[in-house]
Amino acid sequence: MTTKRPLLDGRVPDGPLSLMTRVYKYVLPEVKNELDGWKSRAAAIPDPELRKQALASIASKQFHCQGGAVYAAGHLERRDVLIPLIVALQTISDYLDNLCDRSTSLDAADFRLLHRSMLDAVTPDAPLDNYYALRTEQDDGGYLHALVLRCRDAIGRLPSYRHVQRHVRDLVSLYGDLQVYKHIARDRREGELLAWWSRHSAAYPELLWNEFAAATGSTLGMFMLFLAASDDSLDGPAADGIRAAYFPSICGLHILLDYLIDQAEDEEGGDLNFCSYFADQDELNRRMERMVRAARAAADSLPFAAFHRMIVEGLVALYLSDPKVKRQRNVRATARVLMKGSPWTRLFFWLNSHFIRKAM
Q1: Which residues have C-beta within 8 Å of that of residue 246, sequence separation ≥ 6?
Q2: HSE toward the beta carbon, residue 231, CA cutoff 13 A
Q3: Using CA atoms, how far apart are residues 65 and 286, in angstroms rounded to an integer?
Q4: Do the Cβ atoms of 283 and 274 come closer than 8 Å?
Q5: Distance between CA atoms of 252 and 295, rounded to whole angstroms?
Q6: Torsions phi, psi of 138, nearest 5?
Q7: DSSP label of 140
Q8: What torsion do the CA atoms of 311, 317, 319, 324 make, to the nearest 10 degrees?
Q9: Could you give the C-alpha distances from 156 to 122, 160, 322, in angstroms and in order?
Q10: Nearest to 123 by CA among 38, 222, 200, 54
């Protein structure tokens, strides 16, 4: 009897140095090549508003693709599949976020149809649609369809996608729900978000409603499932375990950190921020500390735990080393709480402060 090879055995970086070497030598240059191609395609979009938002999303949010593509460092031999897939799906996400956030519409049906493209991108047999059908702007020169088809092409080259498709679709569906509810008229959005939470709360008794909503805004679980599906040894139970570990704990930490450092600018702009729904600073600190502990425990529970733990500590370091932190006294206080208990976080904090941001 042959023993089944462990998932991604021998392929995943085993420490910060090997991870960062792969990221700088292989991942970031190839992400740049992908984004340069999409930027050229976006520049040719006929409709001026769609062209403006497509170009703006790439210019201002490229770090989302750079961060997400770190998962390709977990299987360098398949980075030719993983990097185009991660960049294309994240580019759809960022483009649609711009279209909704700076929208000429407040129509929930419009936002939902736009985000159907993201769901279709991870569903190989779904028919393409006119995702702009409910808005004035129509002619993108095939840009959104091209992004969808790039995702499908890459997915077709993942040997174990059948084991993760259900989970990927579920996470994409939750992500689309969030984008609909958070972008509708301000006087409706909180009520819709709470009604949505009521339909999911029984499955996540450890969470508050704003923590669940934040978790649905992360694409990291999708990207980790893509990485797992690049290995032909993946099976259904392993895929189930990855999904459960990433959502809600790791995904929730990711987006709550993002909201944490954006509190001042969101308050100034009147934008929704899920950290503002905690009762006070003490509750925010406690809940954020709980989320960090949960994310670390989830990472440690997975195969090749060191890789996932580096992702978690890297997230904490990335956000807490952002210059925005220094300008917000309450965020500095939270940062001191979250930096405790892990020398890895301090290592990544130092690396990020000295090297990573200079490369972006």
Answers
A1: 220, 221, 224, 225, 298
A2: 23
A3: 30
A4: no
A5: 8
A6: -125, -45
A7: -
A8: -170
A9: 10, 10, 37
A10: 222
Digit-coded pLDDT (tens) for 149-168: 999 999 999 999 999 999 99
pLDDT given at position 20: 85
Query: Which residues of the chain are modeled with pLDDT < 50?
Result: 1-2, 353, 355-360
Query: What's the token pair of residue 282?
Result: 């003490």
- Nearest residue to 245 (alpha-carbon basis) of 285, 304, 159, 288: 304
Residue type, 19: L
In angstroms, the CA 70 to CA 31 distance is 10
Q: pLDDT at position 101, please? A: 85
- In angstroms, the CA 324 to CA 343 distance is 23
Place of tokens 């939902």: 112
Question: For the whole model, what pTM was predicted?
Answer: 0.94
Give percent helix, percent strand, percent coil of the chain, each to the nearest 5: 75, 0, 25
Q: What is the DSSP letter of 353?
A: I
How far apart CA 177 and CA 108 sit, in angstroms, is: 10
Rounded CA separation 82/71 (Å)? 8
> Position 184: which residue type?
I
Alpha-carbon distance of 155 to 149, in angstroms, equals 10
Distance CA 214, CA 230 (A): 27
Tell me how long the chain is.
360
- Residue 27 DSSP symbol: I
Residues 183, 111: contact at Cβ < 8 Å? yes
Q: How far apart are CA 58 and CA 49, in angstroms?
A: 14
- DSSP codes, 217-257: T--HHHHHHHHHHTSTT--HHHHHHHHHHIIIIIHHHHHHH
3-state helix/strand/coil string of 21-73: HHHHHHHHHHHHHHHHHHHHHHHCCCCHHHHHHHHHHHHHHHHHHHHHHHHHH
> From CA 38, how far away is CA 52, in angstroms rounded?
13
* Residue 157, token pair as written in the block: 């080259």
pLDDT reported for residue 360: 42
Is residue 229 within 8 Å of residue 158, measured between CB atoms? yes
Residue pointed to by tokens 């000295």: 354
